[in-house]
Specification:
eight-stranded antiparallel β-sheet; 14 strands; Elongation Factor Tu (Ef-tu), domain 3
Length: about 180
């Protein structure tokens, strides 16, 4: 017997919003309790910063739904939140597994030598001998340290350890310098 999941669509009174530069900052987990709270998985660093980016936008197939968070608090190793207009467990379950998106413009500006991880995607990666290894396709969180996934003639997985492997990130030139053997 196959299980089918019905994706939650915005209710008629919920307007879809335009998000010019969407950045996924987290995901809504399962319902928590009976009063409409939901568990939150945060991808921000530090994780509690996800609460600072209001409004949140929930990713739907046809666009983004803006939501307001009434309450946000730590719970165990994660977080729970109460969404405005979500008053019971049944309503909360409709939000399960939706990505929490913010517009890039909501993020604080960083110093020139600082960067957000998403900014590294698409950058060229060269080693200390100026050999191009490829382009960053994604960043894998591993717990100990993130890993650059570099696609080129072959795939390279380079741990993001400052000063050991990761030597320089030049946002203006859109290039990263690493201490990495192209044969490895």
């Amino acid at each position: 017997m196959k299980q089918h999941r019905i994706e939650r669509q915005p209710l008629p009174h919920e307007q879809l919003a335009a998000v010019e530069n969407p950045i996924v900052m987290g995901r809504i987990g399962q319902a928590y309790g009976i009063k409409g709270w939901v568990k939150i998985q945060s991808f921000s660093d530090p994780t509690e910063n996800i609460a600072n980016y209001q409004p949140w936008y929930l990713a739907h197939p046809n666009g983004y739904q803006a939501i307001n968070i009434l309450q946000f608090k730590a719970h165990g190793k994660g977080y729970v939140a109460q969404i405005e207009g979500c008053d019971d467990r049944t309503q909360a379950q409709q939000y399960t597994n939706l990505d929490i998106v913010v517009d890039k413009q909501q993020l604080p500006k960083l110093a020139d030598d600082d960067y957000y991880l998403f900014e590294l995607e698409g950058m060229d990666v060269l080693n200390l001998d100026d050999v191009k290894l490829g382009t960053v396709s994604q960043i894998l969180p591993t717990g100990a340290n993130d890993v650059l996934v570099i696609e080129g003639e072959k795939q390279h997985l380079v741990p993001m350890v400052d000063d050991l492997y990761l030597k320089n990130v030049d946002k203006k030139q859109q290039r990263i310098t690493v201490d990495w053997d192209p044969e490895f």
